[in-house]
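Records of this kind hold a single protein each, on a pair of labelled lines. With that in mind, the following record should read easily:
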Amino acid sequence: MIGFSSDEEDQFDAVFTHEQGKGYGYFRLQEDNLRDPDIYLANGLSLRALVRLSDLRPSGVRPALLVGKPDLELPYPYIEQPIEWHKLFEALDDLVEKRADALSKLEASDIVTVPERRRRDRLDLDLRDPAEYERMRAKLPENGMVLVVDKNPVLSDHLQKMVTRYQLAVDWVNGEADAIAFCKRQSVAILIVNTSTANVDAYRLCRTVKDNQPGMRIAVIFLTGQSFGYDLARARDAGADGYLVKPLVSHHLLSALKKFLPNVR
């Protein structure tokens, strides 16, 4: 959801919990959830929301619906405000069915589209030299691998099979100290932390790994369950890059990796 207040988001959450379309249920992705959305729902009366939506490049595979008719002509369907909820669900159901058609055409191509990750809105014209951004950007570790912190190697073994064709190495440790030591001696591009791992403080581990590698871009992804409440403010303060909710679906996990590894396409 893009461009709505917290009260509006709560209202959508309540409606999605108690109502649905013709057999389709909907839920809102929380901020920093690395799972790719199926549909973008944007405030059509907010210029900031429309600019952000444009950056995300909606498509047939990941369509957009506007709530409120914008002042300018845009290639997205919309419903009027105030919302008539049955019309919202009709519009969402229609996009779900069109999205299914688009996905069926891509099925054989093995293409996974990855939306741009942007935490800061872009509204003003930026005239700075692109080289300045290049100097500011943290560097990816050379030949960086994926390290999984978990109680057992089941996930890392599964992940290794998933990324074999990308020549991406995956390893596993089951403790916080082992993870820190591993990142010091090996080139790690992504650290995946199962937050249910015994005696592992995910936030502390994330902060330590980030602090130990200044100037390097190590992505840290939390795997959370119902018993672990993801604290957005604390996670961002520690430098975490986002989270995925268990149980995991393979293509959601692979898509999350693609967000941080440009060679995995």
Remarks:
- The longest helix spans residues 85-106.
- The radius of gyration is 20 Å.
- The chain is about 40% helix and 15% strand.
- The beta strands are 40-43, 64-67, 78-79, 145-149, 170-173, 188-194, 219-224, 242-245.
